[in-house]
User: What shape does this take?
Amino acid sequence: MSLNRIDAIRPQPGNAGRIKGMATALIALSLAACASTGQMAESNARDVNDPLEPINRVIFSVNDAVDTVIIRPIATTYTFVTPDPIENNVTNFLRNLRSPVIIANQLLQGDWHGAEVAATRFFINSTIGLGGIVDVAAYNKLYFEPEGFGQTLAVWGVGEGPYLVLPLLGPSNPRDAAGLAVDILSDPVWMVSTEAQNWGRSAAEVIDARARTLDVTEDLKRNSLDYYATVRSAYRQLRAAQIRDGAPDASAQMPEIPDYSAAEMPEIPDYEPESEPESEPAPGS
Assistant: This one.
């Protein structure tokens, strides 16, 4: 209740003191509620590590508007006119171009098996797979695994920092943003390509990624009470799974189940069904 509404109350004779006390109490409650709301907002921002949430939400809204007006219609049209096999070929080709960066980050992380798989995939798909258009390696159970310098920094123990929403790039954090910059600058394919080729590759990666997530994002937006918070949570879970290479989260503690020995188990009495009562003879029989 605002102060103007409190001042508009007209006290009746004999009730002035009581109404004045009620008004004072309402003012106190309103001020307390405002202070509590502010404290809860600050606490929530700290809990989710999102101190820049007001700014992030503005950027998120702008990104969503750009997606709604430009990117999503293009991706929708692309999936409508392009046969599924061709879409898969485009995805395979773009993934193959990222192989040198993936191999380098696997080595930096000390993941020798992952580096071997990535190098084998790159060789097989670049030759037998016609430059990466066909993912021949996947038929031999050598599956694609995305890696970047942001994940390498995480393996080295660098914290993610506060949550960020980057213009046009979307959810991120200082560690992943720095990692993305290093990935681009150290990409040999990017270095030897012309500016026009790099812009074309970037546009193709955006449309390809958006086309593969059309249904997912629509479900998130339709079923979320707070789309921003849902995307923030989903991004963090995805990045955590990628850093662990899909392994279970070791920090997740399962509840302890007591180990009951046979001596501690309560005895269960044997159940004996009661005998049915004998029916009385009918009168006159």
